[in-house]
């Protein structure tokens, strides 16, 4: 049977939280190895779409599609149980697709119905409950023993998310899978225009479903993988977001076209060789919209002070990003020298890397770059704490500061911080060599002040991609084939 499978990565915003809401500033977003999968196969019911989310206790949604004047309408049999992200994507993607392919081809596939699975890697959802129920400790060994895409034993509403951006990864993989299934794109992995089309549609659907136009870095990561991000002007989507119940399809089709005047900027990025990112979720969670509200209100009320702070953070972050890029160049220039320098630094605490600069030895530029990343990122953290204090949004609250400082003490750690909006959601830690990973995980496992749960994910710089079901471990077992 023909199956369409598309996956999209989760995201970690390393630098640029709050700043990237403004087009003046850039952020560094990293794609994760944890991916969200959409699988589509023909249905066996007339114009019925069945969505399966087999990881949850409330696993199915059913819709009937009708097309009226080129607009797709969805009716559901259970009015009280909706999934806004899925409905928004289905309704608008299908309307856009019907406008771009022959009506005969479109009608044939719609009439057959669609059977759709949406499935996220385990890291998107907290696995604490499963581990607790099986009396397993909260560590990476236990997580590796879980079945891939395991059941979370709760409903979608109640599940504890880990902050990797499940809605953006799901939206993007579902949009891309629909476009592939209807053959509205034919080389989506490699064709930049087709990828841009998927970006524009996903960005629109995600904004519409979440009821606001955010910076869009999460959808951008799901589309392009790791990159330095400058947001699009919110005015681009305004004409189709404002009139939510009465979207003009002609205007929408113009806006999502890959040649439309989108002004977002993407500069692709990968962590330098020998670098590794690890993540942990913290057992409390934060409300991003309310933190954003507080920070933006403070910035509005204190524009001068805020601008100084914003520009300081931006210049420190720019040094971090440029140095990371330069490290990759250093590797290309002389791999042996690079590996040797990394090996030396991986055994020493970051604050001591400056001592290596005084010694007569090769690899000085690499020591310099590493030390500069270490110190500049410490400055970013200080500014985020200032932002916390002044805006009263707990971006890097003292509890997180203590944990991050303990991580930063570990030899080989280059930067440890709160991703995205910060708060009590998660932490990231980037280091060099292999040894820091076990040592940081030990810090987490023995941390008493709060419960810190590691994730298995690491950096993967690739955006969404068409997949072969057989190549994704454990995915086939989730489907009723
Ligand atoms: N496995 C899934 N199946 C169906 N819908 C999902 C799934 N994972 C996430 N979603 C959708 O994404 C929404 C969560 O979005 P949000 O609260 O913004 O979290 P996040 O920060 O992870 O994006 C859910 O309400 C649901 O609509
Ligand atoms: C504050 C922000 O700049 C970054 C928020 O990043 P998070 O990664 O914390 O996002 P959520 O997954 O939605 O919680 C807001 C934005 O850019 O939209």
From TrEMBL:
The keyword Transport does not apply. The keyword ATP-binding applies. GO terms for biological process: ergosterol biosynthetic process; farnesyl diphosphate biosynthetic process, mevalonate pathway; isopentenyl diphosphate biosynthetic process, mevalonate pathway. Keywords: ATP-binding, Kinase, Lipid biosynthesis, Lipid metabolism, Nucleotide-binding, Steroid biosynthesis, Steroid metabolism, Transferase. It catalyses: (R)-5-phosphomevalonate + ATP = (R)-5-diphosphomevalonate + ADP. Residues 160-225 form the GHMP kinase N-terminal domain. It is an enzyme of class 2 (transferase). Its EC number is 2.7.4.2. Pfam families: GHMP_kinases_N (PF00288). Pathway: Isoprenoid biosynthesis; isopentenyl diphosphate biosynthesis via mevalonate pathway; isopentenyl diphosphate from (R)-mevalonate: step 2/3. GO terms for cellular component: peroxisome. It comes from the Eukaryota. GO terms for molecular function: ATP binding; phosphomevalonate kinase activity. Belongs to the GHMP kinase family. Mevalonate kinase subfamily. PANTHER family: PHOSPHOMEVALONATE KINASE, PTHR31814. This is Phosphomevalonate kinase. It comes from Gigaspora margarita.
């Amino acid at each position: 049977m023909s199956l369409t499978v598309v996956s999209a990565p989760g995201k970690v915003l390393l630098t640029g939280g709050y700043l990237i809401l403004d087009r003046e500033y850039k952020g560094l977003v990293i794609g994760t190895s944890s991916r969200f999968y959409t699988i589509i196969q023909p249905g066996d019911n007339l114009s019925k779409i069945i969505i399966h989310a087999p990881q949850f206790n409330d696993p199915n949604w059913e819709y009937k599609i009708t097309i009226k004047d080129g607009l797709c309408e969805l009716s559901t049999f259970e009015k009280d149980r909706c999934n806004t992200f899925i409905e928004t994507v289905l309704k608008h993607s299908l309307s856009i697709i019907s406008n771009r392919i022959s009506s005969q081809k479109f009608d044939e596939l719609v009439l057959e119905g669609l059977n759709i699975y949406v499935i996220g890697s385990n890291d998107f959802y907290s696995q604490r409950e499963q581990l607790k129920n099986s009396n397993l400790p909260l560590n990476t060994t236990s997580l590796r023993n879980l079945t891939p895409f395991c059941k979370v034993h709760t409903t979608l509403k109640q599940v504890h998310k880990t902050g990797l951006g499940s809605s953006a990864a799901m939206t993007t993989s579902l949009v891309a899978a629909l476009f592939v299934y209807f053959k509205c794109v034919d080389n989506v992995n490699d064709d930049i225009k087709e990828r841009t089309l998927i970006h524009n549609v996903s960005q629109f659907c995600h904004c519409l479903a979440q009821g606001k136009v955010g910076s869009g870095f999460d959808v951008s990561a799901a589309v392009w993988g790791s990159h330095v991000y400058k947001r699009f002007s919110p005015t681009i989507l305004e004409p189709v977001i404002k009139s939510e119940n009465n979207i003009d399809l002609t205007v929408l089709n113009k806006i999502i076209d890959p040649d439309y005047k989108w002004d977002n900027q993407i500069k692709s990025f990968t962590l330098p060789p020998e670098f590794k990112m690890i993540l942990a979720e913290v057992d409390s969670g934060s409300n991003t919209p309310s933190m954003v509200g507080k920070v933006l209100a403070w910035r509005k009320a204190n524009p001068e002070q805020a601008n100084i702070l914003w520009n300081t953070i931006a210049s420190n972050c720019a040094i971090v990003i440029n140095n990371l890029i330069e490290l990759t160049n250093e590797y290309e220039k002389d791999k042996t020298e690079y590996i040797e320098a990394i090996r030396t630094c991986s055994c020493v605490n970051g604050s001591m890397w400056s001592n290596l600069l005084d010694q007569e030895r090769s690899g000085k530029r690499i020591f310099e770059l590493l030390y500069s990343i270490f110190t500049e990122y410490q400055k970013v953290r200080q500014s985020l704490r200032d932002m916390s204090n002044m805006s009263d949004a707990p971006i890097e609250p003292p509890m997180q500061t203590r944990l991050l400082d303990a991580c930063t003490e570990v030899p080989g750690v280059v930067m440890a911080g709160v991703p995205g909006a910060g708060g009590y959601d998660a932490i990231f830690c980037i280091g060099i060599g292999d040894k820091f990973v076990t040592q940081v995980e030990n810090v987490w496992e023995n941390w008493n002040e709060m419960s810190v749960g590691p994730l298995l994910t690491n950096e993967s710089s690739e955006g969404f991609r068409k997949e072969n079901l057989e190549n994704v471990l454990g995915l086939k077992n989730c489907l009723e084939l």
